[in-house]
């Protein structure tokens, strides 16, 4: 057992032994006072020792009680001078008792005060300041105790998946209240003392003596409460909650392993409808694989193992290639031809996305320079991840690349999704990108919240209508939406690019709607640089020869 302080020590000793120790020490001091000649010698002051110890161990009652007892034993029966048989004046021993009682009272009050401060300090360490519920440190402490007692239990974790979106799209206050609301709803279904607020948007419930199946049913019951919107500050908010389950002793030996594994369940595949994952050991394999990929990413950047393919965008009025989009490709030993969305996600999670983005910027600009020297002029669009814009380093890096290659900045475009541009401070970042002379496209338009509001608010040049809309463009409602979006974009003085156009029919519909530019397999898949050059030469030539 670890004993961290004197106060913890206090919890562990035997009170009977202490009382005996106190009485014996009083008697010993009485004896010392007597054999050293009586109360005229300073040994009476030794009595402060048992008084202070009792004030510490038994608080005020102990302090005052022992002070009285000690004072009395040194009182009327104890001579002032033993050899001369001289007794004490009553005033002398009464005053001594009063002093002893004062010392007993004051020291016990002081000890109580220190104890209270210490308890508050400890409480703060174990409480989540935002929610007032016990935090992850307290959870680990309690788990440790339960594991030591070999109790069987199941942990159920809940995470508000769209917490960031609620913060950004609705309001930070509402985001905060949504966490409190979920905690409040949890305490209606589970025992409050078993609920922990482990992270901003994550909570864990300990279900004692409960197996995985019962925990699953209970989690299901809780999640079903969120099928309908939850009202926060009168606003109907659709909270998306995911749950993970870890059992002791099935899924971990100690508190650290259990805590780590409950976090990992959020990375597991879940049944869409249930949104509950029971811990599987195979996910640690997934983590190992992701780690290997992160290591390989560094190597790919250093040794230029990534490649870029370029997909042309066709202007419908001139029938020319109006620009190209740089799309990353990576063939590696772990995954083969890796899905780029998966790569980007891993790099974003590992915090190394901007290293990849810089690699793409540098190589795309170098390629542009090569083509320019060969007489081919085209604009290149580069995909920028939301995390890239969290600091200025990408902008500075692009500036340097442009300066070194002496490319016209107007030939470079950044493609940003709505996810990247919604934060208010982004307006400044976007302004600085445009001040450099770069163009900006709003990528995947229509897939975020409040897409139309962003259109009006942010400084952009192009809007790329997401492939999902183009896929369903024959559908009347989707058609209306796309037509409306095109008109709005035009009214705002910006241009439209339709993404993922695959058929002649889609192309015709978009043409009739007044769409400006088309990107998609109908014209070309993304191509390696030499093929892209052929495409531009052939395509522009063919159009001219028509
Ligand atoms: P995105 O920016 O929306 O890029 C368009 C994706 O749609 C590309 O997939 C492209 O190959 C595909 N595509 C284009 N036309 C068609 C079509 O007609 N039909 C179909 N079925 N697909 C079409 P890709 O290259 O797999 O890229 C997927 C996503 O990965 C991109 O979506 C982009 O968000 C991201 N990405 C790609 N390269 C980079 C990069 O260098 N940096 C960052 N941050 N993200 C990148
Ligand atoms: Ca894009
Ligand atoms: Ca897109």
Provide an overview of this structure.
With 546 residues, the chain is of the alpha/beta class. The protein folds into 3 domains: 3-125, no CATH class; 136-279, Reverse transcriptase/Diguanylate cyclase domain (Alpha-Beta Plaits), CATH 3.30.70; 287-545, EAL domain (TIM Barrel), CATH 3.20.20. It contains 20 helices and 19 strands. It has helices at residues 6-12, 15-35, 48-73, 90-125, 136-148, 163-170, 172-189, 212-224, 255-264, 282-302, 340-350, 353-373, 393-405, 418-421, 426-435, 451-457, 467-471, 476-491, 504-513, 529-545; strands spanning 79-81, 86-87, 153-160, 195-199, 202-208, 230-232, 235-237, 241-248, 276-278, 307-315, 321-329, 331-332, 336-337, 380-384, 412-417, 439-445, 462-465, 495-498, 517-519. The strands form 5 sheets. It has an 8-stranded mixed barrel, surrounded by 4 helices. The protein has a 5-stranded mixed β-sheet with strand order 4-5-3-8-9, sandwiched between helices. β12 (331-332) and β13 (336-337) form a beta hairpin. The structure holds ligand C2E and calcium ion (2 copies). One calcium ion (CA) is lined by residues 325, 383, 415, 443.
């Amino acid at each position: 057992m670890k004993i961290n302080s004197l106060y913890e020590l206090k919890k562990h000793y035997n009170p009977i032994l202490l009382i005996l120790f106190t009485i014996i020490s009083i008697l010993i001091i009485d004896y010392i006072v007597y054999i050293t000649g009586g109360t005229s010698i300073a040994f009476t002051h030794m009595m402060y020792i048992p008084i202070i110890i009792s004030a510490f161990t038994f608080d005020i009652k102990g302090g005052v009680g022992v002070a009285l007892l000690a004072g009395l034993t040194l009182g009327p029966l104890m001579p002032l001078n033993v050899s001369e048989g001289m007794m004490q004046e009553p005033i002398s021993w009464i005053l001594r008792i009063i002093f002893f009682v004062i010392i007993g009272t004051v020291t016990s009050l002081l000890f109580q005060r220190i104890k209270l401060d210490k308890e508050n300090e400890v409480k703060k360490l174990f409480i989540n300041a935002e929610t007032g519920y016990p935090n992850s440190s307290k959870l680990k402490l309690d788990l440790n105790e339960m594991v030591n007692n070999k109790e069987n239990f199941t942990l159920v974790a809940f995470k508000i998946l769209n917490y960031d979106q609620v913060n950004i799209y609705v309001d930070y206050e509402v985001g905060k209240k949504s966490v409190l609301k979920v905690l409040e709803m949890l305490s209606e279904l589970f025992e409050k003392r078993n609920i922990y607020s482990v992270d901003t948007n994550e909570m864990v419930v300990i279900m004692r003596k409960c197996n995985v199946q019962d925990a699953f049913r209970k989690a299901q019951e809780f999640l079903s409460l969120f099928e309908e919107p939850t009202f926060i500050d009168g606003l109907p908010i659709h909270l998306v909650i995911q749950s993970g389950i870890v059992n002791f002793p099935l899924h971990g030996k100690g508190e650290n392993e259990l805590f780590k594994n409950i976090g990992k369940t959020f990375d597991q595949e879940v049944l869409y409808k249930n949104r509950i994952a029971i811990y599987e050991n195979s996910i640690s394999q997934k983590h190992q694989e992701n780690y290997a990929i992160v290591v390989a990413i560094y190597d790919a950047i250093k040794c230029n193992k990534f490649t870029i393919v370029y997909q042309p965008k066709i202007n419908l009025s001139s029938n020319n290639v109006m620009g190209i989009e740089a799309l990353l490709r990576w063939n590696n030993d772990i995954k083969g031809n890796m899905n780029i969305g998966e790569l980007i996600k891993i790099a974003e999670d590992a915090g190394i996305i901007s290293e990849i983005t810089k690699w793409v910027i540098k190589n795309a600009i170098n390629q542009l320079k090569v083509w320019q020297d060969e007489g081919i002029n085209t604009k290149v669009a580069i995909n920028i991840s939301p995390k890239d814009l969290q600091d200025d380093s990408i902008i500075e890096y692009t500036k340097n690349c442009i300066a070194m290659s002496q490319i016209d900045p107007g030939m470079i475009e950044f493609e940003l999704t709505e996810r990247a541009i919604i934060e208010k401070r982004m307006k400044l970042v976007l302004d600085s990108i445009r001040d450099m002379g770069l163009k900006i496209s709003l990528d995947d338009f229509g897939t975020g919240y409040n897409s139309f509001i962003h259109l009006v608010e942010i400084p952009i040049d192009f809007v790329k209508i997401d492939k999902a809309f183009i896929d369903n463009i024959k559908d009347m409602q989707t058609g209306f939406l796309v037509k409306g979006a095109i008109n709005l974009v035009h009214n705002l003085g910006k241009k439209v690019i339709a993404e993922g156009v695959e058929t002649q029919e889609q192309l015709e519909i978009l043409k009739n709607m007044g769409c400006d530019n088309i990107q998609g397999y109908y014209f070309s898949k993304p191509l390696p640089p030499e093929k892209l050059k052929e495409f531009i030469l052939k395509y522009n030539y063919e159009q001219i020869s028509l």
